[in-house]
Amino acid sequence: MFNTDTVARFNDLETPFYYYDLNLLKQTLQACYDASSKYNFHVHYAMKANFDPKVLAAIQSFGFGADSVSGNEVKAAIDNGFGAGKVVFAGVGKSDKEINYALDADIFCFNVESVQELGVINDLAKAKGKTAKVAIRINPNVDAHTHKFITTGLDENKFGVDIWQLPSVIEALRATTNIEFLGIHFHIGSQITDMEVFKTLCVKVNELDQWFNDQGFAINVLNVGGGLGVDYYRPDINAIPDFEAYFKIFAENLTVKEGQEVHFELGRALVAQCSSLISRVLFVKNGQHKNFLILDAGMTDLIRPMLYQAYHQIDNISSDHGPSNMDHGQKVMIKYDVVGPICESTDRFREDVLLPESVRGDIVAVRTAGAYGAVMISNYNLRDRVPSVYSVE
Ligand SMILES: Cc1ncc(COP(=O)(O)O)c(C=O)c1O
Ligand SMILES: N[C@@H](CCCC[NH3+])C(=O)O
């Protein structure tokens, strides 16, 4: 991702910023497109992962749809060229204003997360003389084997309708007048690296597809959500996720009936590796027990390490690719706690990171920051919003 030219370019720029390798993004999208289109699978991009306009433009150019989680995301999807007919809207707490907006926009599908929400969408659609297309998000109680803060498909999670409540969904569907039932939706969690989890999901999807069929509700859309994880530990070796293996699992384990469509909602897998948070070393502080590398980026710019104990590779790219690299044949390696400038003790990217001896002004890259990075920025401590910088093509 970096070479002497990029580092020379960064030296002239104000930090911190998110750097996007648009070439890697396109290669990733191509790999996903090739692997999914083999089976006629439909991919929606979960835009909560990253809504940078250039990222959205690249994704949209591959013909993917959009998965949104708020009225503003529905709007952003449409404004950025995703056809309304390819936009889905999930979310456990959709406001009336958001539902009305999406109804007016004629989106493809509401992924409905409760019986009560189904009634509200029906009433709001009726008031407009419209029919809302819906899929029911089901909580299948499948353990995603991921961090507990980003698991979504267990009984204890707030998302979707629990299986024991499905008879009341059928009852509600029978009573609605302005709803077109399209199918069922699942999303069991994020950063899933154990592929067996997706097999377990397929078994549940097959059972529930059959169950709805038995109740007289034929399913056109099986939406299995997203969740495919990326390699935070080896971003250079595994820059592109194994989409072939991922889609093959669904092709082999889902029983797809004639005329049914299979939909996916990938976020992280498409965008995580294409971006790094680029920061400068402000100060090097040698304590009695610890050495601190104090960066000009902090938890306001990338909160994942502090919120989910998430691991991100950290590189001193001045040392790896800068002029100082040429000067020093032998690098002295030192363990640093890499921290930010925010007035919180938890503002630490990682502890005991083994890095070449670093000096004020060195440029540091926090890798694999393209998903759930820039979108979770806050202005705590009245921080400036971190801008985007793009690779030169
Ligand atoms: C409903 C839904 N779909 C898709 C996604 C995308 O997940 P991921 O970025 O893990 O692919 C999410 C986020 O977890 C989600 O909540
Ligand atoms: N923000 C989380 C992912 C949440 C996925 C949305 N349900 C992360 O950084 O890993």
TrEMBL record:
Annotated ranges, domain Orn/DAP/Arg decarboxylase 2 C-terminal: 18-370
Listed pathway(s): Amino-acid biosynthesis; L-lysine biosynthesis via DAP pathway; L-lysine from DL-2,6-diaminopimelate: step 1/1
Signal peptide extent: none
EC number of this enzyme: 4.1.1.20
In-chain residues carrying the UniProt-annotated modification N6-(pyridoxal phosphate)lysine: K48
Reactions catalysed: meso-2,6-diaminopimelate + H(+) = L-lysine + CO2
Swiss-Prot/TrEMBL GO biological process terms: lysine biosynthetic process via diaminopimelate
Keywords: Amino-acid biosynthesis, Decarboxylase, Lyase, Lysine biosynthesis, Pyridoxal phosphate
Record bears the keyword Amino-acid biosynthesis: yes
Active site: C343 (proton donor)
UniProt family annotation: Belongs to the Orn/Lys/Arg decarboxylase class-II family.
Transcription regulation keyword on record: no
Cofactor(s) needed by this chain: pyridoxal 5'-phosphate
GO molecular function: diaminopimelate decarboxylase activity
Annotated ranges, domain Orn/DAP/Arg decarboxylase 2 N-terminal: 40-272
Protein name as catalogued: Diaminopimelate decarboxylase
Pfam family, one: Orn_DAP_Arg_deC
